Amino acid sequence: QVQLVESGGGLVQPGGSLRLSCAASGFTFSTYAMSWYRQAPGKEREWVAGIFSAGGSISYGNFVEGRFSISTDNDKNTVYLQMNNLNSEDTAVYYCKAVHTRIPTIKYWGQGTQVTVSS
User: Fold this and answer.
1) Taking Cα atoms as reference points, which of 23, 77, 82 lies closest to residue 53?
2) With b meaning 16 or more CB within 10 Å and e meaning fewer, what string describes 6-18?
3) How many angstroms separate the Cα of 70 from the Cα of each of 35, 49, 103?
4) Most buried residue among 44, 106, 111, 113 by CB atoms closer than 10 A?
5) HSE (CB half, 13 Å, CA atoms) of 92?
6) DSSP 40-61
7) Mean pLDDT value of segment 80-91
8) pLDDT tens across 22-76, in order?
């Protein structure tokens, strides 16, 4: 059974930091590209960052501006999103996504974790 379980969300003050985790199970982690997306109320889901679990390419959405960092721990089948200098516009539900690197129609989503940036 494939599972992507996000954790680490919560309430943080502007300028603060959070680290999100996405624990994967039920598939071969190293053969997937992992991404983080987010969806704010009333807005479309947008891509935040992506990484190939096997190593190599990392990329970020333009709005990240050096504040976020994506990484993986292949021993734990987990992808992380370290978020620093958060602001209110970062408030959203953050989702983890896995896409097979050779068969991109094979994809999985997590259930999401809420991040709220507020004083």
Assistant:
1) 77
2) bebbeebeeeeeb
3) 8, 7, 23
4) 113
5) 21
6) -TTS--EEEEEEETTS--EEE-
7) 97
8) 999 999 999 999 999 999 999 999 999 999 877 778 999 999 989 999 999 999 9
Position 72 scores a pLDDT of 94
Examine the pLDDT at 16 and tell me if it is beyond 90: yes
Residue 11 in tokens: 């309430």
Tell me the Ramachandran region of residue 62: left when phi exceeds 0, alpha when psi lies from -120 to 50, beta otherwise: alpha
DSSP for 3-14 reads: EEEEE--EEE-T
Structure tokens belonging to residue 53: 């679990």
Which residue in this structure is represented by tokens 């539900």? 93
